[in-house]
Amino acid sequence: MAIYSGSLKQAMLCVALSMPLNVYAASDEDLRDIREQIKQLKESYERRITQLEQRLQQAEASRQAEATIVQAQPPAQQPNRSAASSVSAYNPATSLILTGTYENLKQNPDVPITGFAMAPNNHGYTKGFSLQETELSLIANIDPQFRGEAKLALSPDNGLGVENAYVQTTTLGDGFNLMFGRFFSHLGYLNEVHAHAWDFVDQPLVYRTFWNNQLSEDGMQLRWLAPTDTFIELGAEIGRGLSYPGTNRQKNGLGSSVLFAHVGSDVGDSSSWLAGISLHQTKRENAQSDAVPDLLGTAGGVSNLFNGNSKTAGVDFVWKYAPNGNIRLTNFKLQGEYFQRRENGTLTYNLTTPDSYSVAQSGWYLQGVHQFRPRWRAGLRYDRLNSGIAQVGFLNVPNIISNYGYTPTRTTIMFDYSPSEFSRMRMQLAQDNSRQGLADTQFFMQYIMSLGAHGVHKF
């Protein structure tokens, strides 16, 4: 504006010098005319300045938009480009998660939960110090149409397993996304969350008994996100039925399927919520369970085979609160899920006596986690199971326990401290009453350390 102001003064001076000298002796009317001409000249210059400033702003905005588009576009494939440049353009984000615990347990962790003896009961507990699963993650764009992710699990016994290895589409459009490979199912809320992102050291009882901690699948998943202000997601999965409660069958076709739906929204600036329903079904073929207790009190239990259908329905709900939406200072999360499973088919008692068998079992948990100060959190969780009353065929009535008459429960409290977003130290205390006559006070210490770039976790 200083430059334009100087030009205006020069123009006014030129106008004044171009006038005859006798103008200074002019009348009042002449003076008014001169003032009016100066006013019009000033307004003309100001309009011109405004127009130039607007053009400048439009040009700068256009330049910035073009730069943003160029950055968002994937690098085009060019002939005679070296392989090193192509790899650099899609360099994968790599991370390593280190986890370890100290566990103080009174009871033998291998004893199954009462009423769920035919579940895997793989609690994953080890008395004393232990190294837990180490997760190696690689994520990258493959090309403009696909992205890939692989998570390798290094077990404490020096074994290597594939936790996730899948490909996702990036260009289907209209809210659709296709994923294929090995992945954690999107049923419920907690199933797809990796262990290092759990709010407690271990999974709720219902996840341990119904899914052997987590349901993993080899197959395909299709999701659709509705183009609405309210979050609406619908999805379906088909797979091999590889993990419990399915069995690894050597057959063509489908072994399992999952349907799920989620809806969520914000409530003001401080609250948000998410609710969902899901349905899972699979076939179990020659699913063998060992060390199952029976009415005859066989030493070490018996071995049973189950062949039949397994269907599980569930609902989940999550509510989050952070004053004015600022999650860094304080926040609170309330979370709960309920599942009911129905199984019917044939049970072969002790591998010798087959007969009809059906049962409906359920379980739920409710937990709250409060970040009361930056980096400090406290949590409380309550778990409960219902083993149901089994319908047993005539031949096995004398052998099978149809009604255990016991309700497994557990109450857990947790405190953790996160020096940064890459590290967390946790202490947990649980009163476990999931096994009749074997009440257990359990104490845990845990560390979780993240090395390298890691993706954002789910809502």
Put the structure in a nutshell.
The chain has helices spanning 2-18, 28-72, 83-89, 205-210; strands at residues 93-104, 128-131, 134-143, 146-154, 160-169, 176-184, 216-225, 231-239, 256-267, 271-292, 302-321, 331-349, 353-373, 376-386, 391-392, 409-420, 423-433, 440-452. The protein has 459 residues and is α+β, with helices and mostly antiparallel strands. Strands 1-3-4-5-6-7-8-9-10-11-12-13-14-16-17-18 form a 16-stranded antiparallel β-barrel.
Tell me what you see in this structure.
With 459 residues, the protein is α+β, with helices and mostly antiparallel strands. The protein folds into two domains: 2-56; 97-452, Porin (Beta Barrel), CATH 2.40.160.10. Helix content is 16%, strand content 47%. It contains four helices and 18 strands. A 16-stranded antiparallel beta barrel has the order 1-3-4-5-6-7-8-9-10-11-12-13-14-16-17-18. Strand 5 and strand 6 form a beta hairpin. The longest helix has 45 residues, at 28-72. It is elongated, with a radius of gyration of 34 Å. The model is unreliable at 1-9, 11-24 and 67-89 (pLDDT under 50).
Secondary structure elements and pairings:
Blueprint: H1 2-18, H2 28-72, H3 83-89, E1 93-104, E2 128-131, E3 134-143, E4 146-154, E5 160-169, E6 176-184, H4 205-210, E7 216-225, E8 231-239, E9 256-267, E10 271-292, E11 302-321, E12 331-349, E13 353-373, E14 376-386, E15 391-392, E16 409-420, E17 423-433, E18 440-452
Antiparallel strand pairs: 1-2, 1-3, 1-18, 3-4, 4-5, 5-6, 6-7, 7-8, 8-9, 9-10, 10-11, 11-12, 12-13, 13-14, 13-15, 14-16, 16-17, 17-18
